[in-house]
Amino acid sequence: MKSIVRNFALSAAAAVSTANQRTIRFKKAHLLLALGLMAPLQSFAASEAPYCIGVNGGFGNGGTTFVARNFTLPAASKCSPWTGYTKTASTVVAITGGTDCLSSDNTALTVSVTSADPSFFGAGTIVGDYIQMSRPDVTEPFSGSDYGYFAGTAAPVSCTSELLTLPSAHD
Questions:
Q1: Of 55, 66, 68, 155, which has the fewest Cβ atoms less than 10 A away?
Q2: Confidence band of 171 (pLDDT split at 50, 70, 90)
Q3: Helix H segments across the chain?
Q4: How many C-beta atoms surround the C-beta of residue 152 within 10 A?
Q5: Residues 45-52: contacts with CB within 8 Å, 24+ apart?
Q6: In angstroms, what CA-CA distances link 40 with 13, 30, 50, 87, 120?
Q7: Cα separation of 87 and 33, whole Å?
Q8: CA distance 99 to 82
Q9: Radius of gyration of the chain (CA)
Q10: Above 50 in pLDDT, residue 35?
Q11: How far apart are CA 138 and CA 134, in angstroms?
Q12: C-alpha–C-alpha distance, residues 66 and 52, integer Å
């Protein structure tokens, strides 16, 4: 009788174990399928592209242009990193980084960045710019002001090849 009970218990345990393994495999397959389907959607929804903000006419027009090389407009009430450089004067390229935030109604974009270029600003000197731009509604372009080192009117500008070219030699 003991052997019958023991065999029954072992058979039941094996069946439960096999059923659990199938269930786990089933869930993993669905999880992998879901992740596989979601990954391409996320990359299309939040594609990164250069974004340029011209201050006082922008680079090449007597002003300055802030260039974010991998910009993604943040979701409403969110912030994202700003990384890139700033072009000013005729040959100055300052390395720039900071944060950009979008208002909850998608009508105000604030960019807070710091820039460094020892040849231009001086060794150990970091300058700050605080750019506030707004728009009447989400279909209109942003415009506003820079309240920092390069102070003046600010607006998005086309990221031309001249702006996107990062020369090996610059001051």
A1: 155
A2: confident
A3: 2-45, 118-121, 161-164
A4: 14
A5: 46/72, 47/72, 48/72, 50/84, 50/159, 50/163, 50/164, 51/156, 51/159, 52/156, 52/157, 52/158, 52/159, 52/163
A6: 41, 17, 20, 34, 43
A7: 45
A8: 5
A9: 27
A10: no
A11: 10
A12: 6
Pairing mode, strands 126-134 and 64-71: unpaired
Do 156 and 51 form a contact (C-beta atoms < 8 A)? yes
* Two structure tokens written together for 36: 């596989």
- What mean pLDDT do residues 93-115 have? 98
90 to each of 21, 48, 107, 120, how far by Cα in Å? Answer: 67, 28, 33, 12
Q: What is the rounded distance in angstroms from the CA atom of residue 128 to the CA atom of residue 66?
A: 12
* pLDDT tens digits, 52-100: 999 999 999 999 999 999 999 999 999 999 999 999 999 999 999 999 9
Q: Look up tokens 């990062």; give the residue.
A: 166
